[in-house]
């Protein structure tokens, strides 16, 4: 059984990895080249000779001056590199040092390493620490030659590795590493001098003057003064984060400059954090060592002394670094690197600081990957790889774990049967195949045979702390046709929950557990709270985009005008759910009268999928009202100062505008193009009128014949069917739509509100509708308000469910809702071969779907299944028999007596029993929008 606690202790590792050993010997002459390899796996289907792609693997070739080696294939690039280095070590005959040093051996090696660092040889080496030694020799007065112990502890990886053998607490206690270095230096009392006052080490024997002179000659000629922009993070939450300028020059130790900015004498009292942000950068937090703390080898004593400083803990700096920081801190990007002996530095602005904060939050990571902090949102659903823009969920989750110093997330996928056994009923494909591979209809036989050998995937992800404590487990019930989709979807679930948690970190354990359960997530509260305890001290940075000022359902926008650019193919097309749109947008911070305007963010071509939650609700609400080549300008609510500064590069002008108190945010957007979903493109290429319109006309014919007064549309989406019905004269007086998507219902409400009010105001209304309601809820659960309607429709909906849920829906509707007539339509899988031959050339394909494992693809990426005529007929016939209904079959698109039948197959159920329906169950749907002709003018 899985538990929240990992191993009691982590086995000690060798201080030197194979790559480290190769680097020690060859330096930059060792060249690693990693390339992707594709593994071919067994497809698990006898007789199917088409190869199936396996997971992406990596192989590394290592080129050394005398020879080269190639690694085996690994899932991770770094494993391939280490493998190549290990092979090279074996070929060279190098014997690595013992993996498990004794404590005494580690002390001896630590002293030996210190002796080497203070040698003349090390001064000219290209090493992050050698620059500190050279700078120490240029310090004036009593500081000359003194190297801060903190610098040695931070910038020499070998010393840190050796300290791990001496104390297991080293990794979480920076001062303990310093104390171990000091203890080792005492063993070199005849060569090194330790100053307790300066917390620094110095050679007892000065370096020869000629060595120092030669070093000074090789130093770069810096200007007299270098101005480096940095950020001061105050410990007091009442003070604001601000920019500071560090003035350094070639003759001054940069740590002394930072010390002066923090109000202490010199670099000896300065401590460092780990790298902040990207590991390749040298962005760190610099802060003062507490005055009253003496460095001793007892970490227990240190912790007791440090407890008296809790009142001065810098919560934001502590959160960014993952270690306790007291007092003010300086965030700067400056120091020495492996690349050269020169001092590296670059400006770090408030803009960069707030982007670093954003990169600690899942939605912030996604926004930064799109370079759209104000416009983009972390999508609520992973649709297709071809429609997804920005970093993929799995990559975002890995980045999040690294940012919070957690172990890499562990994904495990299982292949399962596509459809579980249904109670009292055999599975459709089992019934249809019946051991006879030559059943009627060649395409049907092919589909059944392929379905029988296909698998679906479920994925679980576990997140561990660095100490291997399990803190989070997500195990969704949903299954997917492709393994990569299962992985991306489980990662997205975790990200969405973490995003909500970080927005409200002060929630109770009960709230936390309950909200996680809604995402199929199990958390281990004790370990989870421990890892994210620092987050509760942060200000409430809310990184979600602003919404439109006013009513979201019926947003208004102004200054709509035609764009001079023309697009004959897409002109006049309005985006709908599932469409991939491309816009040009610009967002400004302006005063109310637009006397001053500062550009914040924009893009010449910004793509997103309508309905996936990938952009600001305000931007999507406006774009869905536009046609191609149309432009709009609208006002958005002013986001928080932190969000604006994360976007704006000119912090000074932006701050002056924000403090004026009269500014607002304006957005200008132009819709460039719309790419409709694949299913729509296929249908438009072959049918006139479009297949969707033919389905509406089919439903309309039955409504007229039945003289129905009430209609409920199950899975109404954006209300396309309900909107179309309002254009015809019918007997309908009440129409109802039910859907699970609140966004889709919001669009439906806007459209229906406009249409119905327009009809009331007209002299001769086109319909008799007196009331309309939209419900948010699942169509798989009973609700008494949906019972007893004259006619019910469910057009192109069931294929978006799992097959089991489609069967459950049929039973629920006919046994509980009991409409007089039910019309159900779904794609005919057998017709796909014709549709896909007619697909336009500009169709975008998912590269992961280019394999020919299936004779035909499904029409839409979101379809969980598509039935043949025989499968659909069996499902509907059994359903009607169980619930005392008659059923007849028809369709639209194609001909009934010509292969392969209709493009959309339709079943019409008619209730035999006309007695009233007794509805005594509860109401679970929420009313999203309601309209009545009696109060329509309000």
UniProtKB/TrEMBL annotation:
The protein's Enzyme Commission number: 2.1.1.386
InterPro entries: DSRM_2, Hen1, HEN1_dsRBD2, Hen1_Lam_C, La_HTH, Methyltransf_12, PPIase_dom_sf, PPIase_FKBP_dom
Keyword tags: Magnesium, Metal-binding, Methyltransferase, RNA-binding, RNA-mediated gene silencing, S-adenosyl-L-methionine, Transferase
Named cofactor requirement(s): Mg(2+)
Domain of life of the organism encoding this protein: Eukaryota
GO cellular component, one term: nucleus
Catalytic activity: small RNA 3'-end nucleotide + S-adenosyl-L-methionine = small RNA 3'-end 2'-O-methylnucleotide + S-adenosyl-L-homocysteine + H(+)
Molecular functions (GO terms): metal ion binding; peptidyl-prolyl cis-trans isomerase activity; RNA binding; small RNA 2'-O-methyltransferase activity
Stored SUPFAM superfamilies: dsRNA-binding domain-like, FKBP-like, S-adenosyl-L-methionine-dependent methyltransferases
Record-level GO BP terms: RNA methylation; siRNA processing
Ranges where the HTH La-type RNA-binding domain occurs: 100-211
Family of this protein: Belongs to the methyltransferase superfamily. HEN1 family.
Name recorded for this polypeptide: Small RNA 2'-O-methyltransferase
